[in-house]
Amino acid sequence: MTDKINPVERLIGFDGHPDSFTAAVVKGPTPAAATLEKMFNKVPLGQLRSWTTKNTTAGDLIVMEASGNSFQLARTLIALGRRALVLESAQLGKLKEAHANNDKISALRIAKAYLAGTAREVWIPDLKTQERRDWFHAHRKAVSRCVRARNSLLSYLSDNGVRLKKGTPLTKPPAIEMLRKAHPWSQRQWQVVEGLLMQLRHAEEQRVHWRSLITQEVMADEQLLAIMRLCGVRHIIAFALGALVGDIKRFANPKKLVKYVGLNPAFDDSGQSRWSGGIGGHGRQDLRSLLMQGAQAILRLGSTPLGKWGRKILATKGHYNIAVAAVARRLTVAVWYLMMGRWTPLQEIDSRLQIKIGKLLGDLTAEHLQSSGKDRKQWRAEIAQKLKSSKVYLLDPAKTYTGRPQPAPA
Fold it and tell me: Which of the pair, 79 or 388, is modelled with greater confidence?
């Protein structure tokens, strides 16, 4: 249990909860040789700072399982001058005893898993990235609430023989009046409809609120705007990349980013058998689904180099999902090069980007436009100028990645 650069005096397995934590102080180079020096059980979380100062040193290494508040706990410990690592929860969960488990066993298990090298370290997001992730998840939850509220309303209408055209707006006054006339509602039935409409309006207000904040963040960040220039990437996907990828330098090459997203196919090569599977079950499913939506848009266009390449894959393989995954993988490679600063200049804003700018501005609320002192025309001109002067990576679909970073253009 030594580090040539920063030697570890003791290893502390840390099992954190919302109100308390348990810590196992361990000494020894391997799980078999490790000895438990001291156990702190169910210490109130409010005593974390005083406990850290009194019972740990700068030479200790504190390891914990990724959970709800683990990143915040790690940042607090690091701010106190301690070394803290967050370990992937998936592997630690497999090590859990089926017949017995408590906080003390968990803390010791976390420490021994780190000594055994079976638990991978998770990157601790900086505060800005964490805040962006919070926004992203809040937006996704708002979208889910909108879908559930709308489906609940449509289901109740269908139960009463009212069928609406797909995409009918349900929160605007004309739609409400249309619903009132669509069926001879009793007073109690209409009160149910009004309640469901109230839920839908509230969910929609939350969705619009978060979408507007995300739009403002993208407009203010040059790197996020630059990502938007990639075909198939609009501002929500650009923001998700900024929030979930974070520091691009932690990915040494495009393959590592592709693996993080989960766009590398699974395989099992053992003995005489070799199995190759799909891309599900590993990586960041939330980011992967967004990139695959972008890939679907690229395939629909078909006029871009990547779109033409994807259509060739579709013609060869004969399976749409395979072509979508292949295009999404190439798109992820382009994102890596772009975020690493490998880019080429843009001469003009084409019609595709003009549409993206229009959709970007369409998500701004009237309150933001009023507070900014600019109208949509002024914002359009300003964003177009930023896009011209920012970065873009022109993807060559025929290029095969060799594993060696390519030099940036002069």
Answer: 79
